Amino acid sequence: MDWALMASFYPDLATGITVTLGILVGALSIGVVLGAVICAARLNRVPVLAQVFDGYVLFFRGTPLLVQLFAIYFGLGQFEAVRDSIAWPLLREAWFCAVLALGLNSAAFTSEIMRGGVLGVERGQLEAADAFGFSPLQTLWLVLLPQALRIALPAYGNEVILMLKGTALASTISIMEITGLARKLSSEHFAPFEAFIAAGTIYLVISITLTSSFSFIERRLV
Amino acid sequence: MLALLSYGPDGWGDELLSGLGVTLLLAVIAFAAGSTFGLLLMLVRRRGGVAQALIAGYVTVFRGVPELLVLYLIFFGTGALIQNVAASLGYTERINLSGFALGALALAVITSAYASEAFRGAANSIPRGQLEAAEAFGFSGPKRFIVVELPQLLRVALPALGNIWLIILKDTALVSLTAVSELMRQATVAAGSTHRPFTFYAVAAVIYLVVSFFSERALVRVERRFALQGER
Fold it and tell me: What DSSP line would sit under A42-66, residue for residue?
């Protein structure tokens, strides 16, 4: 191990942190919004939509993220309709495909976590809220969501870490986030240990920061 | 579309099928080796001391760092290491390592980190009284572990191990990036030479889905088989 060389990699790798975090935040945002829609449609068994989302969740949870990413980034251009559409300038961008693929994947997992949270709230409480004359919206906002959030938070913390690790796949479609930069430094200097271990410590600092933030919030909510 | 997937020199059916075989082999080897090593890690960890801190660090690192980075470290790192050692011995020709073996090693390392946590959780669920009773009966340490602890450990850890299997099965796709001819790699090759990337990635995705689906079904059956009376 050449420690001086490894230390010299950090400034380069640091430029990838914002890219990694940008993809992470974008994907998680899509995941939360779409996940909530999926969860609501499936719990209320909205006709057609519920069945479509059942298949969606099954598909995105049962197939590798890499396949999903490649199907979107390399695959969609196969269709003329996609190439002619107004979304094409975005869909040919690697960063957009990375955020989209990770976001669609996260939505499937997030919707399941939300479902677990909602189902974890005792039914009797909803009936009690109803008996007290709460409107459905009040019940949702004052009774269901605060408790569901508390139940779902630990599992969501895990999902955030899984997504952080998933952002590394963006390097396979030419994005220079932390792993992509590490790969480049490794081959330029023929120093795989120094480059990948340096990158690993950065991921570790991010994931430990995220984990401790989640347990801090959990403790505050109890 | 059907011609593309046919079996034989014109279609890609046989390539995809052989890719699936490699994928399953990778997953099985990584899972078997990784969960066995994970069990050992758990056993060493609970004896305390320096080993406890070291293993806790190992688990944190391999669960907190991207799988792809672990794969790159082992794939490119081992190559460089062996090359350096060989060069110092005066052997300068290029050495090609098996991508399959290194991929299986990387996946096994990741599995072991997850599995040791699953076993740790399961071990904590066994009532202490049982272990004390075994001791009172004069069971030796290893006998106590094999006869009393291990069967219960495996049963309690089964759902978690099932999840780890599904995760590792999907993670095998990463090994395609080091040119191992598993399912994802075959799909990429087919996508490149037919200019039908979406078709082949979709077919690969469906194959992974089918394997996940049947794994899950099998898992439910195994869990039911080993459940306690009244828990079924």
Answer: HHTT-TTHHHHHHHHHHHHHHS-HH
